[in-house]
Write a structure and sequence with these properties.
The chain is an alpha+beta fold. Among the domains are: 95 residues, wza like domain (wza like fold, 2-Layer Sandwich); 82 residues, Outer membrane lipoprotein wza domain like (Outer membrane lipoprotein wza fold like). It contains six helices and ten strands, in the order H-E-H-H-E-E-E-H-E-E-E-H-E-E-E-H. It has a five-stranded mixed sheet with strand order 7-6-10-8-9, with helices on one face. The radius of gyration is 31 Å and the shape is elongated. The two termini are 37 Å apart.
């Protein structure tokens, strides 16, 4: 006849061992669930045929309502030229902005001419000039024709630039924000570079560009994994373009990662409390 002997403390020992393994199991579970293999999708399909030359046409920027223009006049008689230039100068701010947008009033104070809601600008000694819908070359021709009619300058010419050439980059990039570009020859790749490039959670094959021109808003979806992106009319950006990088639905977003971090902290606290209660029971 076999008699089962009860070993004191054996049941509590098994419970203590189970509770001791609980933190390790939870930690392992969270680690396995959070591990993902992310392979970044390359731009342009990963390879570009560099043998044939690529011809491209840089589109001429069109002046729109709300733009701020820097206009500086020159001639063979500088003293008379100052009549047509702003007293504050025509300094152009070319510093990229990452999080703060420079106001139009500030740009105007630094020597810019604001294109009003009617599409006009007002210049000293020349009066009101219609600028909206014109290219810089067309506006320059209009201004110089008026100056030549006045007959006060010899060999006049002027330099026109956009003082508010900016682009907005949103979505799955490292540094979303509004950027003021130092050059008017800017591509969508340069804009993404200023924003820190697309994150591993963003889709290179579904990039949306929102563009406003002459009171109309157009939308375009670009695939940056294809080589024909270079021939797209949206490859070169225009002032006030909005670029949106959509997230990959199969990858965690920044909000998902934040929730995962909070859950990990909560599980760690609960595990510690259970362990302490087991030790002091």
């Amino acid at each position: 006849m076999t008699t089962n002997k009860h070993i004191p403390g054996s049941s509590s020992g098994h419970r203590g061992g189970a509770f001791a393994l609980l933190p390790t199991l939870l930690t392992l579970l969270l680690f396995v669930s959070s591990c993902r293999t992310n392979r970044p999708i390359p731009y342009f399909g990963g390879a570009i045929d560099t043998i044939p030359p690529t011809n491209f046409v840089l589109p001429e920027q069109v002046i729109q309502r709300g733009d701020v223009l820097s206009i500086v006049f020159y001639s063979d008689n500088p003293a008379a030229t100052q009549i047509f230039n702003q007293a504050s100068g025509a300094a152009l701010n070319t510093t990229p902005l990452s999080s703060k947008l420079q106001a139009s009033e500030a740009a105007g104070a630094s020597g810019g001419y604001l294109v009003d809601v009617e599409g006009d600008i007002r210049l000293h000694a020349l009066g009101k000039i219609h600028a909206a819908g014109l290219t810089k070359q067309q506006l320059e021709t209009t201004l110089l024709d008026k100056i030549r009619e006045m007959g006060v300058l010899t060999n006049p010419y002027c330099v026109i630039r956009f003082s508010n050439f900016r682009v907005t980059v949103l979505g799955e990039v490292k540094a979303p924000g509004v950027y003021q570009l130092p050059s008017e020859k800017a591509s969508i790749l340069e804009a993404l570079g200023l924003a820190g490039d697309i994150t591993i959670y963003g889709r290179k094959d579904n990039v949306m560009v929102v563009r406003e021109s002459e009171g109309k808003r157009t939308y375009a979806k670009l695939d940056l994994t294809r080589q024909d992106i270079f021939s797209s009319p949206f490859y070169y950006i225009r002032q006030n373009d909005v670029i949106v990088i959509t997230p990959d639905e199969g990858q965690p977003t920044a909000r998902d990662l934040e929730i995962q971090r909070k859950v990990t902290i909560l599980v760690s606290v609960v595990t510690m409390l259970v362990l302490l209660s087991t030790v002091f029971r």
